Amino acid sequence: MYTGKKLGEAIKSAIELKGVRKADVARAFAIKPPSVTSWIQTGRIDKAHIDKLVSYFADVVKPEHFGIGSFEANEILFNGYKVPLLSWIDAAKQLDRDTLTAASSSWVPTLRKPGAQAFALEIKGDSMEPEFTAGDRIIVEPEQPVHHGCFVVVRENGSEAMFKQYINEGSHHYLKPLNNRYPIIEMSQRFHICGVVVEKFKIYI
Q1: Is the CB of residue 103 less than 8 Å from the CB of residue 88?
Q2: What are the start-end ranges of the H helices in 92-155?
Q3: How far apart are CA 153 and CA 166, in angstroms?
Q4: Residues linked to residue 138 through DSSP beta bridges, in sequence order
Q5: What are the pLDDT digits (tens) for 82-141?
Q6: pTM over 0.70
Q7: Contact status, residue 18 vs residue 59, Cβ threshold 8 Å
Q8: What is the pLDDT of residues 156-197, one digit of tens each?
Q9: Do residues 108 and 73 lie in contact, with contact meaning Cβ atoms separated by under 8 Å?
Q10: Is 84:101 a contact under the CB 8 Å cutoff?
């Protein structure tokens, strides 16, 4: 990882590319704005913030921007937390932790400590654009409470899982794609929610 002036310049340019203020960065890192200014001026940043630095700016720069080498999918990042990457077919099954691990050969980093049954999926298609595009990886928590407006992974009977926004209107429940070219689906007893999406991990390489 870069240090000194080079790291300071890298942080400054990442802030400009993301189009945010120093105050916005400080809020995201739970620090005071002068600390962000210090990062830029001195090129020194607490090791505890490095993982978050990579993830916060992941939508505009790669880890190499900060002098951090490329990483493999199986490498543990972000405080050592990771979840297995499943296929959409496996996601529709109720798998225990051992089976989850056996079903996956790849892992996806997470920012927070995942639940015992958490897993990741790679987005396919364009039904959830523009927020989610093909290749994005989402973190799914089966034990997370479902509420109106959250994003969920759902299966219909024994079919492959699908990804939609959950809409609750009184006694009616719907699965809404964010891309308005796709129809809204009214839920019935045939549908089972496999989990709630709590994070998105963007892959650029």
Answers
A1: no
A2: 97-103
A3: 9
A4: 121, 200
A5: 888 898 988 887 666 666 666 666 888 887 788 888 999 999 999 999 999 998 999 999
A6: no
A7: yes
A8: 887 889 999 999 998 899 999 999 999 999 999 899 999 999
A9: yes
A10: yes
